[in-house]
């Protein structure tokens, strides 16, 4: 008898919510804001997609909106503005609202809330970063804004937000008329795709503007090999490789060997970040072990670095 076997997709991992904008619990959301939900992978509509809703928590009224999915992002655009002045809204994404390309459905309901604020009149309009930019840590970037010439009579400050939460003041005083500030992003700044900049009057905190959407702070340099799982022989010549964003590591870098998370030695003291590769002949006397990593580090800012994501193995020479 001829038997036929049926094969299902090997992907059995359901999508999850990665982040939202506004962030859960945000308290300064514009009444004209749109709502964004980013998933862990590309998703499409599922059986309960139309049950997604936004409700006013005070009277349980449902907000009328239009929505669409683009790859991993769900965009919810209210047809009219939210109610102003400290109204809290709940966004409900039910289990089974979306599914991934393998057919795995969102397993659990996801609910988050945010609160609106009165629309502010501001002489400011932040123009960069205003959403979608990718700025490497360690790079120097221009924060820019336009100014109407009134509404902020003295000075202003620039602040960094991540996931809608205040992180730090970038600079405590800028002249509103200048329209620009040169910001060297700390090399130690955590990578993330949910950053915003806010410019705020120092004399009236109701006068401000915030990036319209999130921008990304990324690693300027990323080690690609060895990045975990490789099996290399002592005495062999191997290529250490990395990618470079083109900024954030302005001079040169060094490559170092770690074992068990402990520094062992500098492999080479200076490589050009743009080169992306270095040929390393592993010493024949290198101790065998399965807990090695490589680190590439900027020589001008040691906070700018990347390390193998996982350990690799060096075997003894034959």
From TrEMBL:
Instruction: Enumerate the UniProt keywords alphabetically.
Output: Signal
Keyword Metal-binding assigned: no
Stretches assigned to the SbsA Ig-like domain: 11-116
**Region of interest (Disordered), residue spans:** 1-24
**Pfam families per UniProt:** Big_5, Kre9_KNH
Family annotation (InterPro entries): Kre9/Knh1-like_N, SbsA_Ig, SRP1/TIP1-like
Q: Which residues form a coiled coil?
A: none
Stretches with biased composition (Low complexity): 1-17
| Lineage top rank: taxon | Bacteria
UniProt keyword annotation of Transport present = no
The record places domain Yeast cell wall synthesis Kre9/Knh1-like N-terminal at 129-212, 225-309
**Name of the protein described by the UniProt record:** Ig-like domain-containing protein
What species is given as this protein's source?
Pelotomaculum isophthalicicum JI
Q: What is the lineage of its organism?
A: Bacteria, Bacillati, Bacillota, Clostridia, Eubacteriales
């Amino acid at each position: 008898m001829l038997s036929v076997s049926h094969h299902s997709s090997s992907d059995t991992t359901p999508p999850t919510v990665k982040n939202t904008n506004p962030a859960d619990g945000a308290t300064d959301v514009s009444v004209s804001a749109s709502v964004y939900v980013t998933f862990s992978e590309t998703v499409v509509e599922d059986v309960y997609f139309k049950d997604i809703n936004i409700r006013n928590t005070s009277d349980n009224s449902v907000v009328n909106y239009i929505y669409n999915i683009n790859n991993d992002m769900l965009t919810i655009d209210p047809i009219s503005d939210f109610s102003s002045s400290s109204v809290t809204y709940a966004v409900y994404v039910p289990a089974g609202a979306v599914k991934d390309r393998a057919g795995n459905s969102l397993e659990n309901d996801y609910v988050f809330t945010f609160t609106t604020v009165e629309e502010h009149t501001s002489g400011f309009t932040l123009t960069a970063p205003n959403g979608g930019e990718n700025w490497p840590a360690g790079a120097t970037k221009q924060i820019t804004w336009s100014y109407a010439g009134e509404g902020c009579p003295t000075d202003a400050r620039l602040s960094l937000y991540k996931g809608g939460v205040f992180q730090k003041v970038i600079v405590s005083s800028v002249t509103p008329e200048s329209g620009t500030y040169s910001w060297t992003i700390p090399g130690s700044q955590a990578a993330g795709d949910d950053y915003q900049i806010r410019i705020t009057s120092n004399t009236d905190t109701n006068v401000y503007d915030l990036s319209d959407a999130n921008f990304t702070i990324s690693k300027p340099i990323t080690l690609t090999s060895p990045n975990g799982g490789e099996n290399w022989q002592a005495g062999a010549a191997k290529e250490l490789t990395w990618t470079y964003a083109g900024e954030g590591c302005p001079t040169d870098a060094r490559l170092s060997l770690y074992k068990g998370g402990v520094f062992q030695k500098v492999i080479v003291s200076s490589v050009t970040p743009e080169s992306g590769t270095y040929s390393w002949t592993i010493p024949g006397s290198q101790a065998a072990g399965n807990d090695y990593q490589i680190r590439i580090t900027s020589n001008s800012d040691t906070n700018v670095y990347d390390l193998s994501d996982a350990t690799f193995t060096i075997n003894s020479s034959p």
